[in-house]
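Hi there,

I know you've been waiting on this one. I reran it after we fixed the sequence typo, so this is the corrected version. Both the input and the resulting structure follow.
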Amino acid sequence: ETGQLEKAERAYHALVLLLRRRAAIQRGPLQEGDVGIAEVLFELHLVAKDLGAEERAAENLESAFDAAALDPSENERFESALRVSGDAEMLLRALDRRLTVAENAAERASVLAEIAAAQEQLGQSDRALASLIRAIGESPDSMGLYDRAQVLAQKTGELDDYATMLERAADRAQEDGDGELACRLLMQLGNLEENERRDLSRAAALYARAQETECALSRVWSARARVAALLNDESVELAMLRKLIDVPASAGSPERTDALYRLSDLELANQDTLPSGVATLASAIEAEPRYEHAARALQAALLLEPASKEAITALEQVARAASDDALLLDALGRKIEVQGATQDVLREAVDVADRLEDSGRVEALLLRAVDAAKDADGDLRAALWAVKRLAELRESQGNLRDAMQWLHEAADVATGEESRTMSLRVAQIAADSLNDLETSADAYERLLRAEPGEPAVWQPMLLVVRRMGDRDRLEKTLRSTVENVFDVALRCGLRIELATLLRETDRRDEAIDLLHAVLADDPDHAHAAGELAGLLEESGRTDELVALLGGQLEACQMRSDPLAGVQFARR
């Protein structure tokens, strides 16, 4: 490594002498961590070569080969050194020598496989294939050799020779009664014909021969079914698939699962066998869930038979198992069309469409729910949920007129607090957003009939009626409300407003009675007293006016209100 080659050569020579003395004393194979004589001699060969001593390098190399031939462990270390050096030719020479002393077929097959690898490294693909074929001849049951040989046969264009070799090997195995080996070889050859040479009929015949061995039947049936499908031989395909699905489920065969899915595909593609296809698919899913495959197969079946309840139910089950909202919405939509639009199904479909943010589908389903309730018995109560959702949807879209209409319909069929809340919302939208005062007033009026004294109803209603400028309606509202308000201050305020309205229409006597009623409730109500005094004076009812002013003056004195007392005294 430091370029001191002569010193390195002397050191390696010394090491060889040391190792030979050890070998003379310590007989037997090299142990882990030991250095072999052959590998040291090979290093000497490399040093001599670097020094330009070609003759000495050649002698060292031959000595290395001789040392390796004396002991398998030495040979193993020597070959490892050759692999590390990357010298494939030398490695090939070492392997050839080992092949000549190999004691059994398995060892010869192993060496031949290594020779093939070295030959391939040297670009000798033809020779490598020949070595692999020899290795297969020595060990026909080493299936890994066939795969390597097939790759090389493709590379060299020798697939025909390789196929011939495989068939002969299969024939020999059958003659020898080795059904397992014959099956493996026939399957290998069938795979070659199917995937490389594209001779499907030949592949089918070879797989049929493999079946006769009665070995690896699941794999054989699967291959026969696959090729039959490619050949459009449905009878053979179905026969093989049914054999596969008869394999006990406990066996956990992937071929059986594949067969279940394939058989369900075939059955679902035929109207006559569609129900059995649904059952087969259920068995397939139980063996191994493949939800995407199942969904595609069922949707294709429903194109063929849209009204199949079995397929729709299966599609719904697949969608739920897969937690696939888009697929579930599809299944629920089909269920609604075929089995009828029940409120429960429609409600779930709306929730799913909402999760998918499909507002168009949400709206269509809500309208369908309303129509379904009307068609059933004309009673919208069953679809109240949908009517409320439609109102919310329209309001979110800014279509307040429609929102108000849906709220109105919902309020008509709802009860109690729910109906009240929706009616209030109708009135609010009508007044505040649409300036539809008539509709708002009507809504409040309906609420007042149920709750005549509720401030949350009559207060906003009075605001609306005042905006309308309808004095008659305002008077009517005030009159119907005042007697049902039990809060003194609120009742007094309503009576004063009504009295003012009556005074403006020149109905002083009625106004005077109302103001007297205010003072009966609240004798200290200065504003009412002032208004009443004015009306009495206008009406010429002097005695009553004097009595009123005297009573108010005494009341001011009693409550220590000199300012108000002065005003009444002056009057």
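Quick highlight: The mean pLDDT is 82.

Best,
R. S.
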